[in-house]
Amino acid sequence: MNINATLIGQTIAFIVFVWFCMKFVWPPIINAIEERQKKISDGLNAGERAQKDLEKAQQEIAEQLKEAKQQAAEIIEQSKKRGAKIVEEETQRGHEEREKIVASGHEEVTSERNRVREELRKQVAVLAVSGAQKIIEREIDKDAHSDIVEKLVAEL
C-alpha cells in the first residue's frame, strides 16, 4: 500500500504541477515566444520591404541619371547649333560688311577716276589752248573763248 499511496500522491503532485505550469508558467512563455516570432516576422518583412524600396530607388536613380544624361546631351547639341548659327550669322555679317567696303571702294575709285578725268580734260584743254596759241602766235583771251574750251573739255 505504501507504493500505491506514494504513487497516487506523486500522480496528484504531478497533476497539480502540470496544472500549475499550464496555468501560470506556460502562458507567459508562449506569449514571449509568440512576441519573439512576431518581431522576427516583422523584421523579415521590414527587410524585404527595405530591399524592394532599395531596388526601386536604384531604378529611379538609374532613370534620373539617364534623363540627366539625355538633357545634358540635348543642351550640348543646342549649344553646338547655337554656336554654329552665331558663326554663320557673323560670317554673313562679315560678308555684308566686306561687300559694303568693296562697294564703297568701287564708288570711291569711280569718283576719283571721274575727278582725275575732269582734271586731265582741263589740263589737255589748257595744253590745247597753249598749243593753238603758239601755232597762231597770238594770245587767245580765256574769257572770250571759254565756250571753245568748254566744248573741247566736253569732247575729251
Describe, in plain words, how this protein is organized in 3D:
The chain is built from two helices and no strands. With 156 residues, it is mainly α. The chain has one domain. Helix 1 packs across helix 2. The longest helix has 135 residues. It is rod-shaped. The relative contact order is 0.03.
**Total beta-strand segments:** 0
Major pleated sheet: none
**Number of DSSP helices?**
2
Calculate the terminal CA-CA distance, rounded to whole Å.
173 Å
Mean pLDDT: 86
The topology string of helices and strands comes to HH
Report the β-strand fraction as a percent range. Answer: under 5%
Shape: rod-shaped
Poorly predicted runs are: none
Radius of gyration: 61 Å
Content-based structural category:
mainly alpha
Tally of structural domains? 1
The percent of residues in helical segments reads over 70%
Topology:
Blueprint: H1 2-136, H2 146-155
Helix pairs in contact: 1-2
List keywords for this structure.
mainly alpha; 156 residues; 0% strand
Question: Quick recap of the structure?
Answer:
93% of the residues lie in helices and 0% in strands. It is mainly α and 156 residues long.
